[in-house]
Amino acid sequence: MRIRSLILAACVVLAAPMASADMASANDAFRAGRYDAALVEASAAGPSADAYALKARATLAKTMCSSLEPDPALIREALASADAALALDPRHGEGRLQKAIALSLLTRPMSLGEANRSGYGPEAKALAEAVLSDDPANHYALGFLAVWHVEVHRRGGTLGAAMLGASLKTAGADYAEAIRLAPDDAGLRWQWARALAAFDAKKYRSQIESELEAALAIDPQTDLERVMQKRAETLLNELTSKRARDVEDIANRMH
C-alpha cells in the first residue's frame, strides 16, 4: 500500500504573501511564477523568518508545478528553509505550514505504516493543527487538514484512519469552514476535489464536479493558481468521460 500526498500541497503553497516591504520583490516574483527569482530576492532581503518561509514556499511551488513527481531534493531544500524560519521564530505560521507540506510530500514513497513510524505524517498534522490553534481563521491550515483526513482514510481504510486519527466527518467540517473563509481560492477547491476523486469518484461525483467548476470560474491571482486551474480542467474532463475507477487512478497520480 503506497501513500501519496497527505497534504493540501498546492493550496497551502498559495499562502498569503509576506507583509514586509523588503519582501515585495520576492512576493511579486512568486506570484508571477518566477520561483528562482523569488528565491534570489528572498535571500537578498536578508535572513528573517519571513524570507526563509517564502524560500520554502517558492521551492515547493517549483516542484509542485512540474508534471513529474515532486523532486525529493527540492522537498528537502524546502524543509531546510522552513526549519530555518522556525529556528528564528518557532511559532511562525507560514514556516510551520510549509514544513507540514514538505514533510507530507516526503511520505509519498512510503507505506502508511512507514509514514507513521517516520513521524512525518503525524508531525505534519500537528504543525497544521498548531497553526490553526494560533489562528482559527487560517483557511490554508483548515484546507490542509481536510485533505489530510481524506488521504489517510483513502490509503489506510478504517484501520489506518483510526491509527492516525483521521476522520471523514472532520475533513468535511474543516473544508466547509475553509471555503467559507476563502470561497475564491482556486487551489483550495482543486485540492479538495482531487482528494475526493482519488478516494471515491462515484460516491462524491456531484461534489467533485461542483468544486472543479467553481475552481475554473475563479479569476486566478497567481501563476500557481493558473496551474491548479489547468489541472482542475483536466480532471473535470476525465470525470465526465471515464469510469469512476479510472478517474480515481488519474486523480491519485495528480498533485
Outline the biggest β-sheet. none
CATH topology: the name is Serine Threonine Protein Phosphatase 5, Tetratricopeptide repeat
Which stretches of 5+ consecutive residues score pLDDT under 50?
Answer: 1-19
Kindly, what is the distance between the CA atoms of the first and last residues, rounded to a whole number of angstroms? 18 Å
Question: What CATH architecture do you see?
Answer: Alpha Horseshoe
pLDDT average, as an integer? 88
How many domains make up the coordinates?
A: 1
In terms of structural class, how would the helical and strand content be classed? mainly alpha
Strand content: under 5%
Structure notes:
The structure is a single chain. 74% of the residues lie in helices and 0% in strands. With 255 residues, the chain is mainly alpha-helical. The protein has helices at residues 9-13, 24-31, 35-44, 49-64, 72-88, 93-106, 112-118, 120-134, 139-164, 168-181, 186-200, 205-217, 223-241, 244-253.
